[in-house]
């Protein structure tokens, strides 16, 4: 069923109606899921998405760019944005039908689940999501990354856009950017057998996240997210100056979705700290 749904999503995109490039430099493709707005070059898809959703209070849309000039990640860090990867911001209407308060708090977890699920559909049969074991392993790293064999292939950042929550997502489809800040090494999907383009990934994630949020939530979103985590990998908090901080062992997720790590005999609850 999932494969059929996925093929349907791609079919909708292929048969959708593309409007010529606007004077502002973007092109809109009408799909059943919502507008897909493409920039060849954008400062930041999150900034563009915030502008566009101001007049679309209850509409879903995704803004993506072939390249970004000022893409950003967590804690104001720069998201390196070479041509060939997927850079998107999904505008999720902030209303009780989609994001009641009790579900809004789990949006980061639901985003991670949607991203890793979408990526897995493009990977060869030998690549599996945890908890299923395989020679090539996809996993989630709290709070916002997807790893492939321990290397980063995706990250996300969520901001409040007023009428919408803006879910910014980057996926290394065909380029593994060189990191200069000491963060986790990166990899890309096509080097590991994936069969997709950046636009394919944008549409897959857009449809998956929207479909998930328009259906009743999983009975235990925290447990589902945790099942895709690699609990054997130590984590390090990032110090305020960007250096690697104290190492901790991930222990569990709280019912609110926060990570509990153990430093020797001491446990600490992390709320939104960035981890190596």
What does this structure look like?
The structure is a single chain. With 276 residues, the chain is an alpha+beta fold. It contains six helices and 14 strands. It has helices at residues 2-15, 45-52, 101-104, 107-122, 198-213, 221-227, and strands at residues 17-19, 26-30, 35-42, 61-68, 86-93, 127-129, 136-141, 145-148, 151-160, 164-171, 235-238, 244-253, 259-263, 266-270. The strands form two sheets. The protein has a ten-stranded mixed β-sheet, with helices on both faces. A four-stranded antiparallel β-sheet has the order 11-12-13-14. Strand 8 and strand 9 (151-160) form a beta hairpin. Helix 1 packs across helix 5 and helix 4 (107-122) crosses helix 5 (198-213). The radius of gyration is 18 Å and the shape is globular. The termini are far apart. 38% of the residues are buried. The model is unreliable at 1-17 and 19-23 (pLDDT under 50).
- Measure the end-to-end span: 36 Å
Q: Strand count, sense and closure of the main sheet?
A: 10 strands, mixed
Strand tally = 14
The coarse silhouette is globular
**Gyration radius, to the nearest Å?**
18 Å
Strands of the widest sheet, in order across it, are 1-2-3-4-5-10-9-8-7-6
- Helix fraction, binned, reads 10-25%
**pLDDT averaged residue by residue:** 86
> How many helix segments?
6
Taking pLDDT < 50 over at least 5 consecutive residues as the criterion, the unreliable ranges are: 1-17, 19-23
List keywords for this structure.
276 residues; alpha+beta; 10-stranded mixed sheet; 4-stranded antiparallel sheet; 6 helices; globular; disordered N terminus
């Amino acid at each position: 069923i999932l494969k059929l749904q996925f093929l349907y999503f791609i079919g909708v995109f292929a048969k959708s109606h593309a409007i010529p490039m606007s004077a502002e430099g973007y092109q809109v493709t009408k799909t059943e899921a919502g507008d897909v707005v493409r920039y060849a070059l954008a400062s930041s898809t999150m900034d563009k998405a915030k502008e566009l959703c101001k007049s679309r209070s209850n509409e879903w849309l995704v803004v993506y760019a072939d390249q970004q000039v000022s893409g950003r990640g967590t804690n104001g860090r720069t998201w390196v944005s070479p041509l060939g990867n997927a850079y998107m911001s999904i505008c999720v209407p902030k209303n009780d039908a989609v994001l009641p308060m009790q579900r809004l708090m789990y949006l980061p977890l639901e985003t991670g689940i949607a991203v890793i699920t979408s990526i897995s559909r493009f990977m060869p049969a030998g690549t599996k999501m945890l908890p299923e074991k395989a020679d090539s392993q996809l996993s989630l790293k709290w709070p916002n990354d997807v790893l492939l064999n321990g290397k980063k292939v995706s990250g996300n950042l969520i901001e409040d856009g007023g009428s919408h929550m803006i879910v910014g997502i980057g996926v290394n489809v065909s380029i593994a950017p060189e990191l200069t800040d000491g963060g986790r090494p990166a990899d890309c999907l096509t080097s590991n057998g994936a069969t997709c383009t950046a636009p394919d990934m944008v549409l897959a994630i857009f449809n998956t996240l929207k479909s998930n949020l328009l259906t009743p939530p999983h009975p235990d979103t925290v447990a589902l997210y945790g099942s895709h985590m690699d609990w054997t990998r130590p984590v390090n908090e990032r110090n305020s100056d960007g250096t690697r901080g104290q190492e901790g062992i991930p222990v569990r997720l709280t019912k609110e979705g926060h990570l509990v790590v153990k430093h020797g005999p001491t446990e600490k609850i992390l709320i939104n700290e960035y981890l190596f």
